[in-house]
Amino acid sequence: MATNIGMMDAAYFVGRSEILAWINSTLQLSLSKVEEACSGAVHCQLMDAAHPGMVPMHKVNFDAKTEYDMIQNYKVLQDVFNKLKITKHIEVSKLVKGRPLDNLEFMQWMKRYCDSVSGGGHHNYNPAERRETCKGGNNVSKKSAPTQSTRGSTAAPKTHTSRRGDQPSSHSTAPPPKTAKASSTPNVTVYDQQITELKLTMDSLEKERDFYFAKLRDIEILCQSPNISNLPIIAAIQRILYAAEEDASIVEEAQAMLLNQEKEGVSLTPISEGLEDEYNMKSDSQKRKSIINLEVDLAASNTLSPRQRVSDASDVHCSGSPLMTY
Fold this sequence. Notes:
The longest helix is centred in the middle third of the chain and has 48 residues, at about 175-225. Among the domains are: about 10-150, Actin-binding Protein, T-fimbrin, domain 1; about 270-320. Residues about 150-175 and about 320-325 have low confidence and may be disordered. It is elongated. It contains 13 helices and no strands. The chain is an all-alpha fold. α10 (about 230-240) packs antiparallel against α11 (about 250-265).
């Protein structure tokens, strides 16, 4: 049983039409778009089909139109997840917006989970009967029922016209307008599919845009750091970042800035420059200390009398100090 599924799992490559066919066949619904399930009621009933009796269907609201009512359905779903110890995170704030991409991804996960639990079959489950206790469940069942009845009723006009086949040809010219209306419905579904695909493409492009914008913002903040803001390479990067127009010459100008700095002998790497400065500072401080020590020793030797100098030297010699080389 898979609760956490990676983004590269095969479940996230299932098409929208296959997801809709699975929902409609499992729950006896007539959804035409995945985002129509954004209220959370469909998700609750799918979990009820996978785990019969686990979901309190009397708390599910199929008539949820506002975000508040939708959130109540997702609370029921989250309670079921907690009981089953499912660690999948439900992004309620995105799902209730009805965005196609977010709802498709979550429904892909739902299909993967339900298939892993029940093996893809719910033979003894009666979705219409389970919806009777839900708010608005009967209305959903009534709306899905005409889709099945219309399929059987299409044969009636054909038998009716066949009985009138012996009438004069003046009445036989009436059916063409009906065929024209029937042929227009497939075009509408094709347009709906194209609109949905465009919405999915737009959502993915927006996510990609936000991702790269965040990266550029991080680079900008790093370039504004006071430790490296004065380096030539930072100036070249900012020249590219703050370019107002798309022009290939901007990159060439940035490269020219770096080449000019290299010719002038300016270090482009902050690490080597910092190490060199630190080494120079240490050497300067050591030189100052040695000079100060020499000056102190000379001053002390000048202030001592000859007898004190001899006594000090004898004390050091008697103590066996390594400083004495004679």
